[in-house]
Amino acid sequence: MSLKNDSFPSSAAFDAIQSSLQGDDAERKDAVKKGNAVFAFKLKNNQGQEQGWHIDLKDKGSVGTGEAPAGKKADVILSLSDEDFGKMVAGKTQAQRLFMAGKLKVKGDVMKATKMEPILKKAQTKAKL
């Protein structure tokens, strides 16, 4: 099942992250060990629509739509534009720069948010944004 939403071009990255996590069992376990959190992404597109995706690196190492897997809460919620998320996943900008510029808002455990960047880097090679 594709996680891509045509209204959010950068959402293809969630498919790439899912593929990266499911492709290699050792890599998935490593990501869960390093991440140890549920990361939620709230993206806003050019039309002002909002959509949420999550990456569960607490238990399964899975990706899905919505703020968190059923019955769970996100440890970190990252809110940003679809365009900026695309740039971040493509390696054209860093989360820290977006945060400092006020383009990335973080709710929850900010320290856990810093653990997200290596996971996104693994998806860079697979995502064609």
Task: Give an overview of the whole structure.
With 129 residues, this protein is α+β, with helices and mostly antiparallel strands. It has helices at 12-23, 25-35, 82-89, 95-100, 110-113, 117-124, and strands at residues 38-44, 50-56, 62-65, 76-81, 105-108. The protein has a five-stranded mixed sheet with strand order 3-2-1-4-5. Strand 2 (50-56) and strand 3 (62-65) form a beta hairpin. The mean pLDDT is 89.
Put the structure in a nutshell:
This protein has about 130 residues and is an alpha+beta fold. The protein is built from 6 helices and 5 strands; from the N terminus they run ααββββααβαα. The mean pLDDT is about 90.
Q: What structural category arises from helix and sheet content?
A: alpha+beta
**Overall residue-averaged pLDDT value:** 89
Overall geometry: globular
Number of helices: 6
Side-by-side strand order of the widest sheet: 3-2-1-4-5
The counted number of beta strands is: 5
Distance between the termini: 19 Å
Low-pLDDT runs of 5+ residues are: none
How much strand? 15-25%
What is the makeup of the main sheet?
A: 5 strands, mixed
Main attributes of the structure:
129 residues; alpha+beta
Blueprint of the fold:
Layout: H1 12-23, H2 25-35, E1 38-44, E2 50-56, E3 62-65, E4 76-81, H3 82-89, H4 95-100, E5 105-108, H5 110-113, H6 117-124
Parallel strand pairs: 1-4
Antiparallel strand pairs: 1-2, 2-3, 4-5
